[in-house]
Amino acid sequence: MDNSNIVDLRIKKLRELMSENDISFYIIPTSDPHGSEYIDNAYKTREYMSGFTGSAGTLIVSKNEAALFVDGRYHIQADLETKETCISVYKLGIDGVPSVKEYLNNQTVPEDRIGFDGRLMMEDVFESINGTVDATFDCELNLVRDIYENIPKSREEKIIILDDEITGESCESKIEKVRIFIKEKDADGLFLSSLDDICYVFNIRGSDIAYNTVAYSYAYITRESATLYLKRNAYDESTTKSFDLSSVNIANYEEIEEELYKIKGKKILLDKEYTSCLFYKALSVGNEVISIKNYDVIKKYIKNEIEQKHARNYAIADAVALIEYIVSLKSSIHEGFEVDEYFAKEYLTSFRANMKGFYCLSFDTICGYKENGAIVHYSVNKDSAKELENNGLLLVDSGAHYMGATTDVTRTIPLGELSDEERAAYTVVLKGNLKLMDAIFLKGTRCENLDILARESLWKIGLDYRHGTGHGIGSFLNVHEGPIRIGYKIREDMPQPELTPGMILSDEPGYYAAGKFGIRHETQLLCVKKYETEYGEFYGFEPLTLVPFEKDAICFELLTAEEFDILKRYSDLIREKVMPYLSEDGKKWLDYNTNFID
Amino acid sequence: MDNSNIVDLRIKKLRELMSENDISFYIIPTSDPHGSEYIDNAYKTREYMSGFTGSAGTLIVSKNEAALFVDGRYHIQADLETKETCISVYKLGIDGVPSVKEYLNNQTVPEDRIGFDGRLMMEDVFESINGTVDATFDCELNLVRDIYENIPKSREEKIIILDDEITGESCESKIEKVRIFIKEKDADGLFLSSLDDICYVFNIRGSDIAYNTVAYSYAYITRESATLYLKRNAYDESTTKSFDLSSVNIANYEEIEEELYKIKGKKILLDKEYTSCLFYKALSVGNEVISIKNYDVIKKYIKNEIEQKHARNYAIADAVALIEYIVSLKSSIHEGFEVDEYFAKEYLTSFRANMKGFYCLSFDTICGYKENGAIVHYSVNKDSAKELENNGLLLVDSGAHYMGATTDVTRTIPLGELSDEERAAYTVVLKGNLKLMDAIFLKGTRCENLDILARESLWKIGLDYRHGTGHGIGSFLNVHEGPIRIGYKIREDMPQPELTPGMILSDEPGYYAAGKFGIRHETQLLCVKKYETEYGEFYGFEPLTLVPFEKDAICFELLTAEEFDILKRYSDLIREKVMPYLSEDGKKWLDYNTNFID
């Protein structure tokens, strides 16, 4: 049975269950109980039901339609993966395409019953739907469980506890800051479900979700106590003892729901974006729940000096790995070895894994050759991997966790001769990457103010990329770290903090010529103070990523003198920092690509 | 008695009255009963009491202090004008300087009584103070009346009624749109106090406030009726008859308060930014008041085709006037005539007044030579006017109302030899003006996204200007027209609409070297659709202002090739549009300044 028939069959089964339960619409979001962005296999029900493998999207099944809502990153991929199934793809961001909320509002009547699994629906999403849609909700209905027979078990590995030399701040100090916030808000406690916030505060790391260094956990911090809920296999006696020293109690993850129902008469802070609507309900009974944003209390997005030091150091290691990889991959292809996207992707991991301090990849490497590069979040499949040739562009978006830092870098590698269109596109995207990298701005500037620097060169010729220009990056934590996001849309629901020294973010404009090639240049940046004048403090960026752009792919005549100057300064920095650690071949390649004298 | 003693005496008198009325803080905002930006002399109480002549600012008098709060435009001027008085200047926008709200919150105790004249305090300002400050308010206390003996009378001139050929849309059609909005909001009526909104909807113009083409008025539009309240001298029988045709009732302005108290049991829409807290109170009794933004219902900031046509045509007239003026002024100075700032300012008006369709100036011309150019909103005084010489920079910010369009343009005129610093600064500001003028952006972009294009060249060398980059401009209406404002601060209280074809706004970066010179380049722009691709609709600007920048003031080596290209295209446009209408001398000057072949 082919994939399309399997999906249609599953939808059919779901419709039967919906009918039995008197449900007219069933929502399957992409989520786990913690509102995580990356979802462990144990929670990939949306993928199972729709066949669409992307990392984000919402499936809404009704009698008449199985509607899959995907954002700009997945417009092409969702079409491809749901081809010949009953799934209709709704491409969010395109004029006239309704949002999930609007869709439900248009399609439902007050008599309808809408069902979903409330453990996997975060409170903020639920409230936004509930606020617009006039229907009844059943939020304790896990219908997929009866269709998805062999749901994978989630991993429950033992956590690691990090030294202050890695984190730069003790768990006690971080908890103290949380308590100051609790007191300021005149509250009793803060309930945390967001895994990266918990790992940050308690200085622990895990590997329960692929590519994320987090452990399944909850935490409840009050003015007097702090309890960390971990999976049973994630800790042992030594963990408990170690946390005793910081006055942190360890408790069982499985008991959290029960524990929540025991809390009464308290004023509790929580972030609705990361709290499931079921848990929100549990806490609402007998307590006053106050909605906050976790990033307002846990400011992990502003890196301390130690975190910045690790970011700088591991950026060199990461660059060495990526440069040696590029050199070696190119020479393999030129020597006639059979190399496909899948091999190219796996091969890169081996270079990073050799680096001291390597922990694991920070996300599944995207390795798209030619037209596959135009699929923004392309996931290569062993069987369908494209053979690499002596020409065209290979887009490689990759990164790793090191013991103290996380990397995320995209370079688009010319494997040989390029078309004029490819070189022009490579250069136009490069202009944006360089301009953003070189931005100087006054204190008070926000990400939305800078976005146009990265997009302008594309907009001027009627092009664009349908994704953000950048995102925050954790320190040995999630590769997408909120709330930072560079984009031009000013979203009242996601207010950006002012750009502040210590923030680490990506600078990743792109251009995707569907069916032909894709280009993305992603450079990790650290926000730093540049100077102070009578007008105030001026900030800018220090590039962390130290991998050069490739000379043969650049149309120098399209660069302005200013852009060429930024490129030269960036290239000089790379030579200075990375050259000493490279092999002879690596040195030769770096020299060629950073030397603009000839 | 010198000015400083007069001010101190007035403050002393106010303190006596405060003491008699048991008032510990008295607030004097800069406002009239309509929340107008430009204030008629009849309402200039803040100026009278503080000696500060700027167009915005708040004075708060207590026993210990007379605190004047001014924004970035007036930091220098307020210092100068209040020198040697008891006034303390609070420079808003500088780190650590409290806002009016914060100041009152810090300085007052719950026992304090804060007084002000509620006719001149808009409801939104009052609510924001009332929401943070724990004290008692007396909002019916006009203490200045007893100090300000000869308060000027306000003008009450007869209104003019505009043809549809000037406005592009009939009064009936505009009222119909208001009614659709009222129905959408499920309300009974809309109360309007903002003068430009009223003039726009009813297609009338007046001259009650200097430089503004508005008439003192109120309006109340319901589902069935529309009443326009005008000053008794502003209309006659023919006005009433003419409005009869549009089913609009004319009533007496003076009766409005009484009328408001008669409205009961209604659901009334109003904009708190333009409704005095006394009127708000009046309407709140027995009605449901719903807060809206007038610009959400009266979209005058998007100009129709006719308004755009007038804007283009009158821009040519305005450019001819300004160019001929520049040529003539320069030649007068070169020929040795004694010319000072005051003459220079008045002289310009005579050129504009000659133009067909001229109505009046759109604001008091700013004409600042050398160090006076650094005072952002410099107002020249006949006695202290600076003599113009054969060197240095003269900043001229001016504009006019024509029968269908309003202009606002700043050019900084080199009167002869310039220092290297002046030329460099002229050029750095020019870069920003050109980059913003040439911006291309996707539908969905807002003003805050574009601001950096104008500021970047300054920020890169640690400089800035402490004012917005641009503002909306009316069509034969207020020269500052909300809600459009180009700035980098993203203000939740003033959300910018998406940039939309038909918007007219200014592009006016500057640089002010205190004590030396000031530079501002202001070009009026019309937002237009540029092209549409698979990525969506792309917008950009058509420059309306057609006055060239002066070649002798530009350091061409500081312009990038891209910027030079924008300058050339802009100059070519000016030649094409304006050359035919110029005198021989004008032609020669324009040719020189727009010809870059040599």
Describe the structure.
The structure is a homodimer of 598-residue chains. Chain A is an alpha+beta fold and 598 residues long. Chain A has 18 helices and 28 strands. Chain A has a six-stranded mixed β-sheet. A six-stranded mixed β-sheet of chain A has the order 12-11-10-8-13-14, with helices on both faces. In chain A, helix 13 crosses helix 18 and helix 15 runs antiparallel to helix 16. The interface between A and B is large, with 36 and 36 residues.
Concise structural overview:
Two copies of one chain form a homodimer. In chain A, helix 13 (305-334) packs across helix 14 (341-353).
Descriptors:
homodimer, 598 residues, alpha+beta, 6-stranded mixed sheet, 18 helices, 34% helix
Intertermini distance of chain A: 60 Å
Low-pLDDT ranges of chain A: none
- Percent helix of chain A: 25-40%
CA-based shape of chain A: globular
Strand content of chain A: 15-25%
Which sequence of strands runs across the widest sheet of chain A? 4-3-2-1-5-6
Structural class of chain A: alpha+beta
Question: How would you state the average pLDDT of chain A, rounded?
Answer: 95
Identify the most extensive interface between protein chains.
Answer: A-B, 36 and 36 residues
Characterize the largest beta sheet of chain A: strand count, sense, and whether it forms a barrel.
6 strands, mixed
Note the topology.
Two copies of one chain form a homodimer.
Chain A (H helix, E strand, L loop, with lengths): L2 H18 L4 E4 L16 H6 L7 E5 L3 E5 L4 H8 L4 E5 L8 H8 L5 E3 L7 H10 L3 E3 L21 E2 L2 H4 L3 H14 L4 E4 L2 H8 L1 E2 L11 E6 L3 E5 L6 H8 L4 E4 L3 H7 L4 E4 L6 H8 L3 E4 L2 H4 L7 H30 L6 H13 L4 E4 L4 E4 L23 E6 L1 E3 L2 E2 L2 E6 L5 H18 L2 E3 L4 H13 L10 E3 L8 E6 L17 E4 L2 E4 L3 E4 L2 E11 L2 E8 L17 H18 L5 H11 L4
Parallel strand pairs in A: 1-5, 3-4, 5-6, 8-13, 11-12, 13-14
Antiparallel strand pairs in A: 1-2, 2-3, 7-9, 8-10, 10-11, 15-18, 16-17, 17-20, 18-19, 21-28, 22-23, 24-27, 25-26, 27-28
Helix pairs in contact in A: 13-14, 13-18, 15-16, 17-18
